[in-house]
Specification:
Strand order of the largest sheet: 1-2
Shape: globular
Structural class: mainly alpha
Number of strands: 2
Distance between the termini: 106 Å
Strand content: under 5%
Radius of gyration: 43 Å
Length: about 1500
């Protein structure tokens, strides 16, 4: 047969053979073993190559389809396993350069978008060549080929091919870059490498990197680029640029070009012709036309930052600072902003400014972090070359203000950090453009502005030139400007910065600044205020500044030097005399017919300064005994006995009345400050000894009333404005929020002096301003602020709220009125009739409702109803037609109020409120609901009512309700109402919301019956009535035609009620029987309840319950019935009636049926925690009742295998298995107690089979997890005797199996954390409980090998937190429970601990991108590391020798990362404890042996240790006995 195919090569070359046949022959020849040709593979490859060459050289005409199939044929050969095997066996296949050149030419065509035909096939061929080392040599041997290929591939990618080709294209680029980098590293001619890079690769690589950095191809979608591959390609491009442009051999050329240095070294003779590398780079970077005009500026900007970073990485070292600066200045010249003239402020769009300023910021940060700018060296050696450059940059930034761009502020901050003199000549313009005149609204921009101002203020604090800075600030504020366009000078950010600065200033500088402000105010503003709006606004800005200074300076005390105190007193007197009083006089003297803006702002300024002065005067008087208040000194002012006493020295009551009348015309800062003045006056009054006198009390009440009345109308506006809590930003819009904040913040002072009407008004506002929906979380990009809703929520949730009894009572009454209003809006009858039927809805005082309990015992002419009459009235209303019906909208409104009620501490209400709210909630629970109310809304409403009733009845005043109503009556009212409601409720019985509702109802009914028993309230009478009522319902549900008419929900309500009755009565009767105290009547009631419950359950079962998954309510009822049945009919009885025997017999069959179904459905129950818990309870009771066990099978074996089936079910998530583990454990414990030794042997055999490593090889993870879980459950069960011996003798086998399982799981990719986590949990439990029973140290040591295998890197934060905690727990178990083993294996222990430490450092490092959302996980891990350090330090004897090595490991690793301060603080606290163990020789050893960089870190650490930790503990020792 071989001869038949020997002429195939002639047919391929024949002109008579069609191309279709040629391709088929070629394909057959490649795959067929029957075709024998000498060097067949090379022949076929050459034929396809020559065909393509002939076509592309126009020597052969082929259809496009044939050409594409030829490319595909070559691609199939290159990717075939056959070719790979041949190459592995040493056979040589020559591709020929001509094929590679054709590939390069085709890719060049594709990059020019001339043709896209065959692109996928050509790229695949290229990938096949580059991914096979034996073939890739064709490229690596001819360097110019790989350069051209890489250049064209990058251009092709930059021109954005179709999405389907992206992944393939970038894989090829990744391979090509890898090959080129390997060639570049071996390149001995730096000139050639530089020329290749700049001539062919620089531009496409920079464009491609820019597009990759922008995430153009990494968005989610088919065929898109993987994040990891994108990151790898960017790294390769950076390595390529660094290896080509910044080789060590080129450093001299850069110096020649940039520093004008002539190098005479003969070693670099080859470099003499290579001139101006920086010029070459910049020329190529600034070339026109190599990318789209819209991209060009962004590509250049990003490339500038990259090139400078690569230059520094390659060449920066001590002595090269000037060179690095020269490069910086040259690269900066590439940016468009460097060429802007002063008048070209709008030459660039904001987006362009943002891009270029981000680059400038990176450049300046590089200068700072690498210490390139040394002020002294620059001045002495380089004629301030750097300083002048930074000055020009500063002028450029200030002249072209970009206050909407955060990077603009950060650039100025970087310049200020380099040298404050860079910005000082333009300090006034800087303050104007970056603060006073800046319009900053975006949160991120505000944070950048705040950071700049912080640096600015801190710099001048250190220079002790704050007054000089304030002189510039005041000069800017007082400049002629359109003040109305300015934002408040002291918004939250600048105010925070200024406060922080002021706290660090000495009193002398504060007073200098204060005096300067007063002088400027007096000379430049005060004389020109009248009729000048701009000047009035300037006065307000200066007042805000003065307020901030006075409020945030360090307070004087008795230890302050006397000259400072006297100067302070003089300044206070001067301010009052020369500024505050003249401003107030201006208000009092003017007679203006209409309100003018300038006058409003002057009043704001005057009252702000008045309030500030009064507050500071009071504070100084309290804190400093040598300060004499001006208000005390001015005794010549006549004091008047008036409702409005003097608020400020020298200003009389009638003058304040005029000011109040003026400020009452508008909501403003002035009115807010006047309220603060009155509040301050109240505080001063309360500090006097006669504050309880009649006059003082009258004054206090008047002051409190004024504060409340001042903003009463504004609170009715229901504004949604937010306020930043800064006095200077109070405006007409934010005044209501500021006013409400003032009131709520000082409620403890005000509430005692408010009249009842005012208290009710306060309560009304509180209720009205509460958020009635879930508050949205504040975004990380939003500034935290205060709103009416937040303030009201804070007072509602405050622990002080119930203590303010008058307000609390008024608020409860407001809530009652709100509910009553909604209820009355749905009344179906005359309001007067409704007030007779439900009188508590109309009571305006809780006390009136509470008096009923004392009057119900009397029946007299007043017509007062006796106890029980209320219940009968309610019952008659429920049975007939309830007079109130609510629709959906009304129900939504009332649910909002119920949500508010649920936040109150209902269980601590006093008796009057308790009774009133019980009747109110009960009335709401039984109202009639309209057809517009959906089932979900109805159930939500009813559940809320009954939950609140239950919460209420758990309170201290629960007994008070039972003085006006019987429990049995409440029981009947509720169930009658629910039966009527359920019949109109179109809902499935298996609906989760309905089942939840049944639970809520059951819990409340159980609570009512438990109250009967706890309070011993006529047990037989109440339980008898409850039982008769339930018997009536049961009869209606089970007898005659009523069965068809009875709704299914009603049957479930009966079942719940009977179950709860058995649940409460059963244990009570059983306990009384043991003491021979059980009343016969209660025993009979219990017996009837058991009969009825059994009958209803069997009815439910007969109606088809066994055909569906059993609901939790059914299983719970069956469990309760079984428990009560066993209690009623003990195993050893001598006398039984025929009825009882029949009942027990029928129940036995029922129990066995339920048991069988539960075992078969157990895996399905796992996802429903309540069902599973109920099933476990029934199975436990069934197991403990041997009389019920089937004769054929072992119940132990059946239950155990069902449990294994649950644990091994792959459809059940791991989290659910963890949740149900405690419930399984409870059943398993009972089984092990009763089970035999043989049963236990069977359990152990199953566990060991599950832990066999072959399960991991078979990927049967569920078998492993079920065995691990069963072992954990076994450990949580009390084992003794033979069973304990069997378990602990198998423990070594278990530990060994866990070691093997863990090793296999950690070798998988990705790591099987679902297996590793439970293994670590089990190992920790074994080590803890085996403290005395694991005798072989080897088995404990195996734990170290497990811990060293577990990966702690490349995990998501939640996974990392879980694995870290488990590893820590195992390590801690060894430390605490096996100290002898640990002592012999301290190196292994420390290796495991160091892995934890290093992983925390890695995860806790400050990242370039991403937020700090996951920092909480790392902080928790850092706390565990700190705690482990403390346990190690507690064992000083064992670890003293190792302490210096632990410190060395710590500082070596911490030197590699920049940790978040919180993480660093926790780790440092731990390492300080290890330093306590180090003696002086250890410290000297570390100082000598550590590497230079690490040594600096250790020096800093040790200094902090001595300063903070050691000093503190030595101080504590002095006071220790």
């Amino acid at each position: 047969m071989a001869a038949v195919y020997s002429g195939i090569s002639f047919k391929l070359k024949s002109k008579t053979t069609s191309w279709e046949d040629k391709l088929k022959l070629a394909h057959f020849a490649w795959i067929s073993h029957q075709c024998v040709l000498p060097n067949k593979e090379q022949v076929l490859l050459d034929w396809a190559r020559q065909s393509l060459i002939a076509f592309y050289k126009k020597k052969l005409e082929l259809k496009e389809d044939i050409v594409e199939r030829l490319w595909i044929y070559i691609d199939n050969i290159l990717h075939s396993k056959k070719l790979q095997d041949l190459l592995k066996n040493g056979k040589t296949i020559n591709l020929q350069i001509s094929l590679v050149k054709i590939i390069n030419e085709r890719i060049a065509e594709f990059s020019l978008l001339e043709s896209q035909r065959s692109m996928c096939a050509v790229l695949s061929c290229c990938q096949g060549i580059l991914s096979t080392p034996a073939l890739a040599v064709i490229y690596t041997a001819r360097q110019e080929l790989i350069v051209v290929l890489l250049s064209q591939l990058c251009w092709l990618a930059c021109r954005q091919p179709e999405g389907a080709m992206v992944a393939q294209l970038f894989e090829v680029i990744h391979l090509a870059l890898g090959h080129y980098l390997s060639i570049q590293q071996q390149q001995v001619n730096p000139r050639r490498a530089f020329g290749e890079m700049t001539g062919h690769l620089l531009q496409p690589c920079l464009v491609l990197r820019h597009l990759l950095s922008g995430g153009r191809w990494t968005q989610a979608g088919q065929g898109q680029l993987r994040q990891g591959l994108s990151r790898d390609i960017r790294s390769q491009i950076e390595a390529l640029l660094q290896g080509g442009a910044f080789q060590p051999e080129l450093l001299s050329s850069y110096k020649e070009e940039l520093l004008d240095q002539q190098q005479g070294d003969t070693k670099i003779g080859t470099m003499k012709n290579l001139l101006a590398p920086m010029d070459t780079l910049i020329a190529r970077l600034l070339d026109v036309g190599y990318c789209e005009p819209s991209l060009r500026s962004a590509v250049i900007a990003n490339s500038v930052a990259l090139l400078y970073k690569l230059f520094l990485d390659s060449y920066f070292k001590e002595g090269n600072q000037l060179l690095c600066f020269r490069v910086l200045s040259r690269l900066f010249g590439c940016l468009r902003i460097s060429h802007l003239q002063e008048e070209q402020i709008k030459a660039l769009a904001t987006s362009d400014w943002t891009t270029e300023l981000l680059v400038v910021e990176q450049l300046l940060n590089s200068v700072a972090s690498n210490n390139i700018y040394n002020i002294a060296a620059d001045r002495i050696r380089h004629e301030e070359a750097q300083f002048h450059f930074y000055r020009r940059l500063a002028e450029l930034l200030i002249n072209h203000s970009q206050a909407s761009v955060p990077a603009w502020f950060r650039c100025l901050k970087a310049l200020m950090s380099l040298n404050h003199l860079i910005l000082e000549p333009d300090l006034d313009d800087l303050l104007a453009s970056a603060w006073i005149d800046a319009e900053v609204t975006d949160f991120r921009t505000k944070k950048a502005q705040e950071a700049l101002l912080h640096t600015l203020f801190q710099t001048y604090v250190k220079l002790r030139q704050v007054p000089r800075l304030f002189e510039e600030i005041l000069g800017v504020i007082c400049r002629p400007a359109a003040e109305e366009l300015r934002q408040p000078v002291l918004a939250s950010g600048p105010s925070r910065v200024l406060c922080e600065c002021l706290l660090e200033l000495p009193p002398s500088q504060i007073l200098d600044t204060w005096s300067l402000l007063l002088e400027k105010f007096q000379s430049l503003v005060l004389p020109y205020l009248q009729d000048d709006v701009d000047m009035a606004l300037k006065s307000l800005s200066l007042s805000s500044l003065l307020h901030c200074i006075m409020f945030n300076m360090r307070s004087l005390d008795s230890s302050t030097p006397l000259p400072i105190i006297r100067r302070m007193q003089r300044t206070m007197e001067r301010m009052l005399r020369e500024l505050v009083r003249p401003l107030l006089d201006l208000l009092l003297d003017l007679q203006v017919p209409e309100l003018e803006l300038w006058l409003q702002k002057v009043s704001d300024s005057a009252l702000l300064l008045s309030y500030t002065w009064a507050q500071v005067d009071a504070m100084l008087s309290i804190n400093c005994s040598q300060y004499h208040s001006v208000s005390v000194a001015l005794t010549d002012v006549a004091t008047e006995i008036s409702n409005l006493p003097l608020l400020l020295p020298g200003v009389e009551t009638h003058q304040w009345r005029k000011i109040e009348k003026f400020t009452a015309q508008f909501d403003s800062l002035g009115r807010y400050c006047l309220e603060q003045l009155y509040l301050q006056k109240m505080k001063k009054t309360l500090m006097q000894t006669n504050f309880q006198s009649e006059e003082a009390l009258r004054t206090l009440r008047c002051d409190a009333a004024y504060i409340l009345d001042s903003g009463r109308e504004s609170l009715n506006q229901r504004t949604r404005a937010s306020w930043d809590a800064q006095v200077g930003t109070v405006s007409a819009l934010t005044y209501p929020v500021a006013h409400w904040h003032l009131i709520v913040s000082n409620l403890t002072i005000l509430i005692s002096y408010l009249c009842p009407d005012d208290v009710r008004s306060l309560a009304s506002v509180l209720l009205r301003t509460l958020p009635m929906s879930k508050a949205q979380e504040v975004s990380a990009d939003e500034e935290p602020s205060i709103t009416l809703e937040k303030i009201s929520s804070s007072i509602l949730h405050s622990p002080l709220f119930p203590e303010m009894q008058s307000l609390h009572s008024a608020f409860l009454m407001c809530l009652t009125e709100g509910c009553t209003s909604i209820l009355c809006s749905g009344a179906q009858c005359d309001p007067s009739l409704l007030s007779q039927q439900l009188p508590w809805l109309f009571e305006k005082d809780h006390m009136m409702v509470a008096l009923w309990e004392n009057r119900f015992a009397k029946v007299g002419p007043e017509g007062v109803e006796p106890k029980g009459e209320i219940a009968q009235n309610l019952l008659s209303l429920v049975k007939s037609d309830f007079p109130i019906q609510l629709d959906g909208e009304q129900l939504e409104s009332i649910l909002g109020l119920l949500d508010v009620i649920s936040t109150l501490q209902l269980d601590s209400l006093l008796t009057p409120y308790h009774v009133h709210y019980f009747l109110l909630l009960l009335s709401m629970a039984i109202i009639k609901l309209g057809s517009s109310c959906s089932s979900s809304l109805t159930l939500k409403f009813l559940m809320t009512c009954y939950r609140l009733l239950g919460y209420l009845q758990r309170g201290k005043s629960a007994r008070s309700v039972l003085k006006i109503m019987y429990v049995s009556d409440i029981f009947e009212i509720i169930l009658t109402s629910l039966f009527k409601a359920s019949s109109r409720l179109p809902i499935n019985m298996d609906d989760p919301s309905w089942l939840e509702f049944l639970q809520v109802i059951g819990a409340f009914l159980e609570q009512l019956m438990q109250m009967l028993i706890q309070m011993k309230l006529s047990l037989v009478l109440n339980f008898g009535k409850i039982s008769r009522f339930l018997h009536k319902l049961y009869t209606e549900a089970t007898v005659g035609k009523q069965v068809e008419n009875q709704n299914c929900q009603g049957q479930q309500l009966i079942l719940v009620s009977l179950t709860k009755l058995c649940q409460v009565l059963g244990p009570f009767v059983k306990e009384r029987k043991q003491h021979h105290e059980a009343p016969e009547a209660l025993c009979e009631l219990l017996q009837k309840a058991v009969l009825h419950t059994g009958a209803v359950l069997q009815l439910y079962w007969a109606q088809g319950a066994q055909d569906h998954r059993l609901p939790s309510i059914f299983i719970s009822s069956a469990s309760t019935l079984l428990e009560a049945d066993v209690g009623q009919h003990p195993r050893h009885r001598t006398e039984t009636s025929q009825m009882t025997d029949e009942m027990t017999c029928s129940h036995t069959t029922f129990y066995q049926s339920v048991y069988s179904q539960l075992l078969s459905e157990l895996p399905a129950f796992a996802e429903d925690s309540q069902c599973f818990q109920a099933a476990m309870r029934f199975l436990t009771l069934f197991f403990l009742t041997p009389e019920l066990h089937p004769k054929k099978d072992s119940v132990f074996t059946s239950m155990f295998h069902s449990m294994r089936k649950v644990l091994a079910d792959p459809t059940i998530p791991v989290q659910i298995i963890q949740d149900i583990e405690p419930h399984l454990g409870a059943l398993f414990t009972q089984m092990l107690e009763v089970g035999t030794t043989e049963d236990f042997r069977m359990v152990m055999q199953c566990i060991l089979q599950g832990l066999d490593v072959s399960n991991m090889w078979k990927a049967d993870l569920q078998a492993i997890l079920s065995a691990v879980t069963l072992t954990k459950v076994l450990l949580s069960s009390p084992l003794s005797g033979e069973k304990a011996r069997l378990f602990w003798s198998a423990c070594p086998q278990i530990v060994t199996a866990l070691t093997l399982q863990n090793r296999e799981a950690c070798q998988e990719q990705p790591v099987l954390l679902a297996v590793v986590g439970p293994i670590l949990d089990l190992l920790a439990a074994l080590l803890r409980q085996g403290e005395e029973t694991i005798s072989n140290p080897h088995h404990v040591s195996l734990a170290f090998s497990i811990l060293l295998t577990v990966p702690l890197d490349h995990l998501k934060p939640p996974e990392y937190g879980c694995i870290f905690l488990r590893v820590h727990n195992v390590l801690f178990s060894i430390l605490q429970c096996h100290p002898k083993v640990m002592l012999k294996a301290i190196p292994s222990f420390l290796n495991c601990f160091n892995r934890l430490l290093f992983s925390v450092m890695h995860e806790g490092r400050q990242k370039d991108k991403g937020g700090t959302d996951d920092l909480s996980v790392v902080l928790e891990c850092a706390r565990l590391v700190q705690r482990m350090y403390s346990h190690i330090a507690a064992r000083a004897e064992e670890f003293t020798v190792f302490s210096p090595f632990m410190v060395a490991h710590y500082v070596t690793e911490v030197q590699k990362v920049t940790l978040y301060p919180t993480v660093k603080g926790l780790l440092q606290e731990g390492i300080y404890l290890i330093l306590d163990l180090c003696i002086e020789p250890d410290v000297q050893f570390l100082r000598v042996s550590l590497q230079p960089g690490v040594r600096d870190i250790f020096k800093e650490l040790y200094n902090d240790y001595v300063k903070y930790h050691k000093a503190k503990h030595e101080g504590e020792k002095r006071y220790t006995a």
